[in-house]
Write a structure and sequence with these properties.
Blueprint lengths: L3 E5 L1 E3 L5 E7 L7 E8 L6 E7 L4 E4 L7 E5 L6 E5 L8 E9 L13 E2 L3 E5 L1
Parallel strand pairs: 2-11
Antiparallel strand pairs: 1-3, 3-8, 4-5, 4-9, 5-6, 7-8, 9-10, 9-11
Length: 124
């Protein structure tokens, strides 16, 4: 049973940077779409960034565009989310999710078969 393992996260001050990463517990042989969601207390879950590892296509929500960068590490299934110019409103639990195939135009709403346990990001 494959699980997504997240790392990174933590507490930073506004304006600082932070990186979270996510990787499947077993190596995947096919390209996949991985998305980062976040959910703040009392708010709905929001998809913030996605990447299709097959072609390197990336997608961002308007709320993080220009500040966050999603990427895939070379020779690895690990996907990272580099967060810069962090704001207090970025405070949330961040989850990664993945599914095989492309992300598609509606990447924020497609079905993802694999989910991480979540990692907390706090910006003060």
């Amino acid at each position: 049973h494959v699980q997504l393992v997240e790392s990174g996260g933590g507490s930073v001050e506004a304006g600082e940077s932070l990186r979270v990463s996510c990787a499947p517990s077993k190596e995947w042989s096919n390209p996949f779409c991985m998305v980062w969601f976040r959910q703040a207390t009392g708010k709905e879950r929001e998809a913030v960034a996605a990447i299709y590892t097959g072609a390197g296509e990336t997608y961002y929500s308007d709320s993080v565009k220009g500040r966050f960068t999603i990427g895939a590490e070379l020779f690895s299934d690990t996907v990272y989310l580099q967060m810069s110019s962090l704001k207090p409103e970025d405070t949330a639990m961040y989850y990664c999710a993945a599914g095989f195939g492309g992300c598609g135009l509606h990447w924020w709403g497609r079905k993802y078969d694999y989910w991480g346990q979540g990692t907390q990001v706090t910006v003060s």
